[in-house]
Amino acid sequence: MTYFLLIVGFVLLIKGADWFVEGSSSVAKLLNVPPVIIGLTIVAMGTSAPEAAVSITAGLQGSNEIALSNIVGSNIFNLLVVVGVCAAIKPFLADRDILRRDYPLTIIISAVLWFFARDGQLSRFEGAVFLLGFVSYIGYMIWASLKNRTVSSETIETLSPGKSVLYIAVGLAGVILGGNFVVDGASAIAANLGLSQNLIGLTIVAIGTSLPELVTSIVAAQKGESGLALGNVVGSNIFNVLFILGASVVLTPIPVPFESIIDMIILLVITIVMYAFVRFSKDYKVTRLQGWFSILLYIAYTTYIIIR
After folding, report:
1. Average pLDDT for residues 292-299, to the nearest whole number?
2. Distance between CA 172 and CA 166 in Å, rounded?
3. C-alpha closest to that of 131 among 38, 65, 14, 52
4. Do residues 244 and 52 make contact, with C-beta atoms less than 8 angstroms apart?
5. Phi/psi at 121 (nearest 5 deg)?
6. Cα(105)–Cα(97) distance, rounded to whole angstroms?
């Protein structure tokens, strides 16, 4: 029953986020909000809704290790598996603007996360700093996009006002309920198997909440748009720390065990290594060899956290 609860929770999280994004995008379009702003705000936050629901719910329920390890584990999974799988399917060229602007920010954020956590505690003040960084980043992205935007033929499907509100309400309910199911199921599994909440958060929960990013990137790769994978991952990782972890910590300060500090160092190292892979390759290309190496690196990391 516990595993069934966990699976149902993941389904509700992913489908709920999908409905929420569709309904919210439709409302924004009906209100004549530019598509670029919809993409940078509603869609971006919607794809991170599973991580947000799980981490915030876990923090409020006192399952602090799941709240923190979900974010760290999701970011590691995104960098190694999502990018790795897409490169293994089809090598791709990374967007230079992402490498110049967004990826270095991801490295800085990962370093700041470790710096804040090294004393064994993430405080409300530190959470507020992350949230301020999130607001500043979104504000800058919207400003830059509006300043440099070009006329686009992209259209967003609009639903009727009533149907849009229904999608938002049902989607939000699914995300919240799914978050509760996942946290309860993961905590029960950890207790039944004698495993730490940190391990469950880094593996089962992190992988489950990262499924939207993985599925989206695989579909893009199959359509020959593998380059979207890196942007998807970088954006998700920034949102995970600045918005989700920031909100979680503002609501409930999180104690940081030594194992989590080690995981943050590993995340920082992986973030730098992946950047070096792309930045110093010919034409900023991510090759199949690099993709398979990333996947093997994730397998090695998962083996390490299981046996430690």
Report:
1. 95
2. 10
3. 52
4. yes
5. -155, 135
6. 12
Of 296, 213, 261, nearest to 114 by C-alpha is 261
The two three-digit tokens of residue 264, written as one number: 């943050």
Digit-coded pLDDT (tens) for 184-224: 787 788 778 787 878 888 888 888 778 777 776 776 666 66
Confidence of residue 70 (pLDDT cuts 50, 70, 90): confident
Q: How far is 101 from 291, CA to CA, in rounded Å?
A: 23
Strands 92-93 and 285-286: what pairing?
antiparallel
Q: Which residues of 196-223 are buried (b: 16+ CB within 10 A; e: fewer)?
A: bbbbbbbbbbbbbbbbbbbebbbebbee
**Residues making up the chain, counted from first to last:** 308
User: What does the alpha-carbon distance between residue 18 and residue 31 come to, in Å, rounded to a whole number?
Assistant: 20
Q: Which residue has the higher pLDDT, 244 or 59?
A: 244
Joined together, the tokens standing for residue 123 give 């405080």
Chain centre distance of CA 185: 20
- The answer on pLDDT for 153 being more than 60 is no
C-alpha 206: how far from chain center: 9
Residue 30 has pLDDT above 70, yes or no: yes
36: left (phi over 0), alpha (psi -120 to 50) or beta: alpha
Sort residue 32 into left (φ over 0), alpha (ψ -120 to 50) or beta: left
Task: Identify the pLDDT of residue 47.
Answer: 66
Q: Where are the beta strands (DSSP E) in the chain?
A: 92-93, 121-122, 254-255, 285-286
Angstrom distance (rounded) from CA 91 to CA 277? 13
User: How far apart, in whole angstroms, are the C-alpha atoms of residue 243 and residue 249?
Assistant: 10
> What kind and span of H or E run contains 87?
helix 83-89
Walk me through the domains of the chain, giving residue ranges and CATH numbers.
Answer: 2-307 (1.20.1420.30)
How many other C-beta atoms are found inside a 10 Å radius of the C-beta of residue 271?
A: 23
Unique residue bearing structure tokens 């935007």: 149
Which residues lie below 8 Å from residue 181, measured CB to CB, with a gap of 6+? 5, 6, 8, 9, 12
